Amino acid sequence: MVDTPAALVAVMLALFSIVLLSSAMNSVEDFTDASNLRRKSPEAGLCAQFIEPSGFPCSEHKTQTKDGFILGIQRVSSNSGNFRRQRGPPVLLIHGLFVAGDAWFLNTPNQSLGFILANRGFDVWVGNVRGTRWSQSHVSLSEKDREFWDWSWQELALYDLGEMIRYVYSVTNSRLFIIGHSQGTIISLAAFTQPDIVEMVGAAALLCPITYMKHITARLPLRLVKMHLDQVMLEMGIHQLNFKSDWGTSIMDMMCNGHVDCDDLLTSFTGKNCCFNSSRIDFYLEYEPHPSSAKNLNHLFQMIREGTFAMYDYGMWKNMKHYGQLKPPKFDLSQIPSTLPLWMGYGGNDAFADITDLQHALKELQAKPDLLYLENYGHIDFLLSTRSREDVYDRMLAFFNSLGTFIKEEDKPERGVIFWETTDFDKCEEVFDLTRSIA
Fold first, then answer.
1. How many degrees, rounded to 5, is the angle at CA 139 between CA 136 and CA 141?
2. How far apart are CA 235 and CA 4, in angstroms?
3. What is the pLDDT of residues 125-147, one digit of tens each?
4. Does residue 384 fall inside a structural domain?
5. Which pTM value belongs to this model?
6. What is the CA radius of gyration of the chain?
7. What's the rounded Cα separation, in Å, for the pair 191 and 186?
8. Which residues belong to the active site?
9. List of E strands, 65-150
10. Number of helices and strands (H, E) in the chain?
11. Is residue 242 situated within a structural domain?
12. d(C-alpha 367, C-alpha 58), whole Å
């Protein structure tokens, strides 16, 4: 039997810790100021609130998933004013956990990937998965309904991303490029195992790629996994994780007000980030974090406990009902076509996208991805580093540009190119060992 007061304290610790992971941009002082976190749900869309004020033309789009969720998608153009210029290849941006499409525009226009892509001539589409503030509608459910939050990243991959890809493909009549970060890479790789989805994708670039999570080194998440706090939350009827609600803000205020050691929690969650733009924290906190579901967190924790890249585990008997087998089916990475060009960027200080887990995934892939290894980069640096354009984005765009707008089989460059940036000889050897293992 669970001791209720102890469980409540444990849950509050879990919830407080989760928001630090999601925002990845905090100090103790920032989170103890409730006014920085509390923000009413915006009436205007992402275009009007965020992108157009920076001078970039933007249009709002909506599409409906098979299970009834209404997803918001934005289309962004260059701010050059040359509207007659033919659009380049379509690129769909897929965000990570507890953030949304605005994550690609959090830095200045010359540092944010969404703006950079638009000014480089790409046809930029911004995805927002269900539950985030830009995708909080359903044909029959309200966000107050328990059923509204009955999903994990499995549905994000097979329904949300699948539908967003179909929508962009139907509008542009062109296969599209996919760029994902963190959870965005999980759902991308899972979706690419589905033939009806991957056939509409021309190439993909994955920042901090995650499939297997058995070897993550993030200290606090590992502690929370061992405490089974995700399961406690579900047992207590917590289905929505919304840290901009009054109770979410109160929990964070209380936990950082002398009850928990809040020093260096960002490093404990994500690993050391070398180049995070801390000067824009107040601006970040106006938009982050976005809601997600407790079931989604439970699914991610299952991956850490079980070391699998598989569908949601309901338990043996419910698995029989959902899948017709005792264990959840695995997402088979070998089903991703060898003809799909892949580019992956990962860092030596990333406590989530561990090199051992990455190696496991690379061995299962048919294709040889192009790899960029940055020794001093952590999990958040690939999205919010002050040097991400020079360190990451220019190299990613060189990969896309090498493919051309229309990718023909005979014109595809040889896969398996590796770049690295490190002064540590042992790290170089580690990268070369990884290369040889997938050759």
1. 65
2. 12
3. 999 999 999 999 999 999 999 99
4. yes
5. 0.83
6. 21
7. 9
8. 182, 350, 379
9. 69-76, 90-94, 123-126, 137-138
10. 21, 12
11. no
12. 35
